[in-house]
Design a protein that fits this description.
The complex is a heterodimer of chains A (334) and B (322). The radius of gyration of chain A is 28 Å and the shape is globular. Chain A folds into two domains: 2-73; 102-327, MetI-like fold. In chain A, strand 1 and strand 2 form a beta hairpin. Chain A is 75% helix and 3% strand. Chain A is mainly alpha-helical. Chain A contains 17 helices and two strands. Chain B is mainly alpha-helical and 322 residues long. Chain B has two domains: 1-30; 65-317, Orthogonal Bundle (MetI-like fold), CATH 1.10.3720.10. Chain B is 71% helix and 0% strand. Chain B has 16 helices and no strands. The longest helix of chain B is centred in the C-terminal third of the chain and has 36 residues, at 282-317. Classes of the chains: A mainly alpha (334), B mainly alpha (322). At the A-B interface, helix 1, helix 2, helix 4, helix 5 and helix 6 of A face helix 1, helix 4, helix 5, helix 6 and helix 11 of B.
């Protein structure tokens, strides 16, 4: 680190000397070239200096923790007298214990918990994405009171905070408003509507009905996503739509042939974001804390967090693969 | 003639459905807030009355008073939280802007690798790192330097505020990787000519950054600042695990209004004694909790409404879109 700074200083003085000399000396090809190289390298070194805090953080608080948590997960841990820890390699024992004998604080087996979490996240991600895209398209249209509508549509960024959700949840007794609203807004009604008037199979209809039932909790998760989509929509040039109109495309075609392809990067970003956001709210994190600090089973807790992390990464890979397949070679650098 | 009339009718019908949809969605989003309004404004004796749905029979601000005396006290916690959030937000902006600038502007060895690492840190949930980070801070030491300064013992940083600042200073505060990403996207879309002009006028790397790049990054800064402030204000994970006894309003409220039966009866007891209410039902607990939520939200909402136009504008131009 120190070395780098020193060399950086040297480099800086180098370049400044040269820039001072520049007017005096004749600019032959050679000096120009040398100047160019030093300038570039000094720029690179400066860039690394700028990145240094993040790199240190990455090493100290990301790479090393991941490494040590994998190490813990393969060992029997005991807290020593001086507060240090003694580790003893015990192979896959922690993992075996986690999936065979341990149960979560709510009495669910972990294999089942992971399965349910994954199902929840994979079902909810497309719903959130569609919903927020829909919202973004709505508030992108010009109409009276659009400013106000936008304010409301982005409000979930604030209302969706975990604390707020906890505080405005009803913890005791019954919720009169909820039941009165639910009386004429029930999933049974939507279910009947869908089954009688469309050809959807019952499982799909049930899923849609359930999603509409949960529209309130859904809306509270969509603030940031709506915002990102709106920004994406605004960045599409209007000329494209004009051309489409002249060529005689209708709104439906314009949406699928222009809006969606132009948004493909944004869609990837939004999907990844909502995916991670959903994982953050999963109950697994509390279980990790419980294992490690309330039951003193650091090894098992570390095994749980390793599995959890691998699960997130594997799911993301599947998701990205599916997305690139869907958008067909849309360049996805996010 | 007929055609024009037809079109007008068509437009009116479309407008009607469109506005219905927008208003309906607005209602769906606001519903959680709307439905607690009658609860918090009605009198304690009125709570639990099944006839009352939207309009309370007897209004009173009792629940707000109870919430303030239970959760907010003299406002010191709130103030300290605001100061803490402002400080952390500032640190997060600076560190993320540094990292984002060097990633978006300069190509150096491994710069694309570092970018991939940033994305990996975005998608890795911090909970997965909880144990080892916690243990690390419990015995904090970097290459033996901290031990040397601290009489040969590593420092115990848990339950001290330093951890949160250290994390923010090294780019791993609340969702900070996303901020690095936003800055990177923004800076890489700035025209290169700006920097070239600065260079010709004799600006070095640092001067270019502070005099040219940063002032031009106002949209990105506003976006990151507002998101960072809101997320830090609402954070219970970092503050809760690394500094549980600290004065953070989000944590204090979650603790005071925890959902278990013991706590509920304790809170109800306090309310009953303090306000001489003849009988308290569980509804009173909820009403107080909701009132606390509204008070907790009020500074955020005020700020949001005051700056909403600016915010939306800067969100649009912040380069979040890849």
């Amino acid at each position: 680190m120190n070395k780098r700074k020193i060399s950086d200083k040297i480099n800086k003085s180098d370049t400044s000397n040269q820039t001072q000399k520049k007017p005096e000396t004749q600019k032959t090809n050679k000096t120009k070239k040398r100047l160019n190289i030093t300038f570039r390298t000094s720029r690179k070194i400066n860039a690394v200096v700028f990145l240094l805090p993040w790199l240190i953080g990455f090493l100290l608080f990301f790479a090393v923790p991941i490494y040590s948590s994998v190490v813990y997960s393969f060992s029997k841990t005991e807290v020593g007298e001086q507060g240090g820890m003694s580790l003893e390699f015990n192979g896959f024992d922690n993992y075996k214990a986690l999936f065979q004998t341990e149960v979560s604080s709510t009495g669910i087996q972990f294999a089942r918990m992971f399965l349910e979490e994954n199902a929840r996240i994979f079902l909810n991600t497309p719903v959130i994405m569609t919903f927020s895209l829909f919202c973004a398209i709505l508030v992108n249209v010009k109409f009276k009171g659009r400013g106000l509508a936008r304010v409301v549509f982005f409000l979930p960024i604030i209302i969706g905070l975990n604390v707020v959700q906890k505080l405005i949840a009803v913890s005791t007794g019954s919720d009169f408003v909820d039941s009165s609203v639910g009386a004429f807004f029930s999933d049974g009604f939507i279910m009947r509507l869908l089954l009688n008037n469309t050809f959807l199979p019952i499982s799909v209809a049930a899923f849609i009905a359930q999603a509409t039932e949960e529209v309130f909790s859904l809306a509270s998760k969509c603030g940031v996503q709506t915002l990102i989509f709106l920004a994406g929509l605004q960045s599409i040039s209007g000329a494209l739509y004009e051309v489409a109109k002249i060529e005689g495309a209708n709104a439906y075609e314009t949406f699928w042939k222009i809006t969606i392809p132009m948004l493909s990067n944004v869609i990837v970003f939004v999907v990844v974001y909502s995916f991670v956001d959903l994982f953050l709210s999963s109950p697994v994190s509390e279980e990790i804390y419980m294992f490690a600090f309330r039951r003193g089973q650091i090894g098992t807790g570390a095994a749980l967090s390793t599995v959890y992390m691998l699960n997130v990464l594997a799911d993301l890979l599947i998701l990205l693969f599916a997305l690139t397949k869907l958008t067909k070679g849309g360049n996805t650098d996010a | 003639m007929l055609d024009a009339a037809q079109r007008r009718i068509k437009g009116a019908i479309f407008k009607f459905f469109f506005l219905t949809l927008v208003i309906g969605l607005c209602f769906a989003i606001l519903y959680p807030l709307l439905k607690i309004l009658p609860v918090v404004t009605s009198d304690f004796s009125d709570l639990g009355n099944p006839d009352v749905i939207w309009i309370p029979v007897k209004t009173s601000l009792m629940s707000f008073r109870a919430a303030i005396s239970l959760g907010f006290g003299n406002g010191r916690t709130m103030l300290l939280t605001a100061v803490y959030c402002a400080a952390i937000t500032f640190i997060q902006i600076m560190i993320s802007a540094f990292a984002g600038y060097s990633l978006g502007r300069v190509k150096f060895l491994f710069s694309s690798v570092v970018m991939v690492l940033v994305i990996v840190t975005i998608v890795t949930p911090p909970q997965a790192l909880l144990i080892s980070q916690y243990l690390r801070f419990k015995q904090f030491d970097v290459l033996g330097i901290v031990s040397l300064l601290n009489n040969g013992k590593p420092m115990d940083l848990i339950n001290k505020p330093y951890v949160l600042y250290v994390l923010a200073l090294t780019g791993f505060g609340v969702k900070q990787s996303i901020f690095v990403f936003i800055f990177r996207q923004f800076f890489s879309s700035l025209p290169m000519e700006l920097e070239e002009a600065a260079l010709i006028d004799g600006c070095g790397f640092y001067k270019t950054f502070f005099k040219i790049a940063l002032p031009n990054a106002v949209p990105a800064i506003t976006t990151v600042a507002s998101l960072a402030f809101v997320w830090n204000y609402g954070d219970t994970y970092y503050t809760g695990y690394f500094h549980p006894d600290g004065p953070y309003i989000a944590n204090t409220l979650t603790r005071i209004f925890a959902d278990n039966q013991d706590n509920i009866s304790k809170v109800l007891n306090v309310i009953q004694r303090r306000y001489m209410v003849p009988s308290v039902s569980n509804f009173v607990f909820d009403a107080t909790k909701h009132a606390a939520a509204l008070i907790y939200l009020s500074p955020l909402l005020a700020m949001y409404f005051a700056a909403q136009k600016k915010l939306v504008e800067s969100f649009e131009r912040s380069g979040i879109v890849g």
